[in-house]
Amino acid sequence: MDAMKVVGTRLLDETSAGTRVYPLYLPQNVTYPCISYFQISASQTHAMGMDLNLWRVRIQVDVWGETYAATQVLADEVRARLSRWKGTIDGVTVIDTLFDDEEMVPDPDMMTYRVLQEYTMLAGTA
Fold first, then answer.
1. Which residue from 2, 100, 102, 108 puts its CA 20 to 30 A from 37's CA?
2. CATH top-level class for 3-125?
């Protein structure tokens, strides 16, 4: 199950981060605002005597910015692109995407702001 493709496609060039959307890690000397994302877990759904092609995938999206206001704007944009989204991208059919949690994490050493968002995606492959 590659839910990462779905997240990257839904966010790339669709927010104030533009093309600064990165799987797993931010590159060195990154330009803000930007987004990083990764899969926390993926669990397959089972039914009486068979495995369904249905997965429950937990995704974390980190929104990064140099100001509180810019970070909040980008966090709102990401939530609007992902929360309750349904559709098919690259052979992954998403039944629903649920917004689970959000936390603001300022980094005084780096002088940046980060909003952590968690989503649960219910999806299967064709």
1. 108
2. alpha beta
* Mean of the per-residue pLDDT values of the chain: 92
What values do phi and psi take at 105, rounded to 5? -130, 95
Percent of the chain with pLDDT over 70: 96
CA distance 58 to 7: 11
Domain ranges of the chain: 3-125
The pair of structure tokens assigned to 8 is 């990257």
The one-letter amino acid at 98: L
E runs forming strands in the chain: 21-23, 34-47, 50-65, 87-89, 92-107, 112-125
Structure tokens of 38? 């990764």
- Return the structure tokens found at 80: 């609007």
Tokens of 120: 């649960």
Q: State if pTM tops 0.85.
A: yes
